[in-house]
Amino acid sequence: MPLLELRNVIKKYRVGKEIVTALDGVNLSLEAGEFVAILGTSGSGKTTLLNVAAGLEKPTRGEVVFRNVTLNKLKEWQKVIFRRKQMGFIFQSYNLIPSLTAEENVALPLLFDNVPPWERMRRAAAVLAQMGLKDRRKHKPTEMSGGQQQRVAIARAIVHQPRIIFADELTGNLDSRTTHDIMLSLQATVKKQGQTLLMVTHDRDVANYADRIIFMVDGKIVSEEQGRK
Amino acid sequence: MVRVYQAHSYPGESEESKQRKLTDEAIAEIKSIEGVLAVSPAYEVGGEAKLGNKTGYLQIIGIDAATMELMDFDVDYGRMLNTSDQYNVVAGSRVIDNFYDPRQQPDRVKEWEEGDPLELLDKRVSVTLMNQRQQKRIYSLNVVGILSAKSLEYAWSVFAPIKEVKKMRDFSLQGMQGGQAFPPGKEIAVPELPRELPSKGDDQYSFALVRAQDVSYAKYISQELRDRGFNATSMADNLDGIEHVARQMQAVLGGIGAITLLVAAIGITNTMIMSIYERTREIAIMKVVGASFADIRTLFLAESSLIGIIGGTLGIGLSYFLSYLLNKYVGAMMFSGMEGENMFQISLIPPWLILFALIFSMGIGLISGLYPANRAIKLDPIDAMRNG
Hints:
The structure holds two protein chains of two kinds. Chain A is of the alpha/beta class. Chain A has helices spanning 46-54, 76-86, 102-112, 117-130, 146-158, 176-193, 204-207, and strands at residues 4-15, 18-30, 35-39, 61-66, 69-70, 87-90, 164-168, 196-201, 212-217, 220-226. In chain A, helix 3 packs parallel to helix 5 and helix 5 (146-158) packs parallel to helix 6.
């Protein structure tokens, strides 16, 4: 049984008077522990696919099924709990909270999950150490480089040990050297923990770190191939 | 606790012809009015007094010693009058201030200072009365007690048994023409004058002291007495006027307060909305990371309540400061010459008001935060992230 399944998903937006079809009948299935990259140019609908798959946006038609649960039929508060327990998110612009330290940022998902403070901080510190940021725990995001901030964001995405991690252009703001380092450690982490990673990118090199690469054009999946790294 | 005020009636002084005379009959009638706890008829005389080397003026009120306790008389020093006392008196706490030493240089303006009421205790005071026939009589009074300083109504008078004061009064009224007293040498005969004033043998009292059961009765009793043709005044009557002015002031200040409150509430709401605009991205992040609606709402309501509490605390601090200044300077100015500064606080903050103000300001903060918090909840994390 696949972990996440998109069944004939259609997503249409109204932009002014025009109706834009972002997803045009997408069928996709992710197995547990799989690392899948979605590759496409901007406007191909890849970010929409990610948002719909994560339950952040509702599909116009079709179903998103996470194990036995149809995500798009859940109430907002149920989706919140789902996200809190099962999902992690990584974004292009890191999206750390500037007033909090690295450690506090990482502990944030645990805070909303009512994990006691000492336990939160212990786990956050452990994950940061795993991401090679042991001595950056007490730093604010502005005191860190882009690569370091993205590592903190990755730590935040995995601290609550989600089943699936969604990553949107996570290397978009990083140089190639840092991209390589980060992709390797992310790859190692999800493999080690058996987590599923769905990553969206326009960069062919980055997509190659995945097990499976899915090509998208105009809201449709056009082809698929194996990753090479 | 209800502070009890006495209704003092001073009938017999008005010039209205309807005026009721204050006779024993009238005293009995007053006693029968609802809410009257005790009544004492009273005579009043005044005269020059000597205390050792000091001279002064003494107002002597003769009352029924048996009713004194009911009238809320209380002594700080010495003892109370009893029915067997004759020329023994109890003095008000400030009577001593009536006396001065005439040997002191008159051009040296002595600063006013409080005398020690104990100076009077167990001393003899001689009072000189003079009647219209230019006869002089000296009475020697023995001070056996000093009244409690708490009672301002009684502070400036000396109280003596009624029988003795009646004798003194009767003497001082001797020689009045047609019952009317004129200064010697300036006598004008006005026999057609219809007035009747107490003369020797007449048992009209100078006034009567009436003690009500409580404040509300005091107002009622003095009104009732006026309706029956007596001239009654009481502290409670003044209280009405003071309360009216206070109510008006409260209404005006309350109005200003209400407007300020509204502006402040809008201020908090605006601050919170701006803060949500600024933190759109953070809110979105928290939502994506797993914050529920309740989490976000709690966060923003807590913040706005905190603004309210901080504002309330600052307000209470400022109020205390202003209240202190008001009491120290304005209050001292208004009541200069009266003793016991602590007694005349024109601004008073009761403890419950502080608690109320804190809870109220927190409530205002909370209410002001409701709309912004709901805006934060409705924020779409996807849109918010994209704009970042």
